[in-house]
Amino acid sequence: MAVDEFSRSVDMGLRLSKRIYYGKDANPCMNAPKPPSMEKSLSTSSSASSFRLPQNHHPTAPMVYAVINEPAVVDNPDIRSYQPYVYGRCDPPALIPLHMLGAMLEVDCYLDTAFVTFNGTWRVHCLASTAFCDCRITIPMGEQLQVLVYSERVRFGKQGLVLGVEVETKRRSYFSQLIYPEDEKDNLQETTKDGFLMKGNTYTFQILQVEGGSSINVKVKWSQKLLFQGNDFCLNVPFTFPVHVFPVFKKSPCREKIVLNVDSGTCTAIMCNIASHPIKELKKQSGQLCFMYEAEAVSLDPFDQRFGIGLAAFCKVCSSEIFGGLLLQSPSLHDYDQREIFLFYLFPGSNRSIKPFKKEVVFVVDTSSCMQDGPIQKVKYEIIGSLWKLNQEDSFNIVASNGQVKSFSTSLVMATKETITNATEWMNTNLIADGATNLLLPLEQAIDMVGKTSDSKIPLIFLITDGAVEDEPEICNMMKAHLVNCELNSPRIFTFGIGSYCNHYFLQMLANIGRGYYDSAFDVDPISIRLQKLLDDATTPVLSNVTLDDLQYLESHEIFPYRFPDLSSGRPLIVSGRFKGNFPDIVKATGFLALDKTSHVIDIKVRKANDVPLEMAKMVHVGFDFKH
To answer: For 358-539, CATH number?
Structure first.
């Protein structure tokens, strides 16, 4: 279901709901319609021209909608009212947002990952008590990418990852279950495979035949990455409800409850500044915080179209110097991989006086026809902004590809005001979306440019594309060939995917091979902020060529990513893995600082972390079948 079609269906559902009469006890702030104002007819044509332009009804919190095919069944299940007959069917079906009776949000934050559990109860208030309809559940997740890995099987979530869903209705119960393709033929239980991602970060699925007047209980678990910015971990959970889900009866208040647990995984002090809710502090100890908020959800402004606001929190790790830790955990009994689990992390600290590295930067931009209009303009703008942030000792180049390869210069040029101005004019002339996607040739050209002029500069290659190619294995093998020794002047590659048609799995793997990072924007709007964050993080390394010396003394180990990226001022370095053997109580992490490639050694304390779900970071996301 496309976003526009979804909004159009909700718009029709809201117009259909005006037929419902709630009686004299209805909340006057909700302006419940009375019989004289009911619409006697409603166009149900599937033609887009028959609709007025709908509002953007994309969900900003977990929501449940009644799927209405026959308008005649729309009624108050408690008070039978006169309903003028409506001819025809809704095609596509109308979606009426159900009234929510309560919502509870529990968020557990560990290092850079938040595990969110949402419990909500809705009532089918818009259907005659003798009628049945399907219901659609939507789950918007946070914008930060979540990557889950399990041994040799690797699956990537897009903007968030649904970990589990449980649904209870009067007649049926549903639950999600991971099913591998090889096991699917042996699965004898009744399943529904309606689930899919809508607009990149919203998971939606449908449950069958719910009775009018009954309740629906939904429990959803998902994970999302925390944004690291200015030594703060920033949490933003979608929790903003439209006002039309507010119960219309005074005797049916809607309560919301929020529990926020923060475990930094460190012994370092942390501070939490809550921006969205007056949350009460329940517990505070070294590296851990716990907060709670509970109140009746109300609309502060009767003319406001929403009530409640998204949960936002900012947790600061209080340290000025680079520091880290190594967490150990034994696998659970049901884990088929019985090797021990470890997680190694480094934080950049707040010391901004560290001398910056000299850099060689090459931007490889896909200028195929799919990039036209909004995407290419936003990419161009962010590249220009990144160029002006380079130091004069840095060098750069720009490579454009749409089947034919064009370069701003035949070699790297110094980042002076004159060359950046010339590069801006060149991009305005040459970054024009037209043609097909070809990535191998421009990447080869970019790799040949870097790492030749100076062994004290870090080469950074940015690949920005919205297309898919057929030679992904050849590209990955080419990148591996240039990283045999992983020297300081070996190229790092950072990838950015736009839209849903490019191969995001390939871009993630290419970034892992190249000791870089990957990010994406599945719509035009978030391109600027997400690409800017990736460029800023990549161009501010504070510790390069990081190694964990004691890994070589283990019996065996497997890590992800299998090459350590550099530590930047904009994001922590976090590596997880499995191992056999024993770590000492203190291990040493080494890397290079920018000043004359000075070797920097950090003592890393090793500790057991039974209260941190390290195993969740090794989980496979294969897909969901909903059983009932």
So the answer is: 3.40.50.410
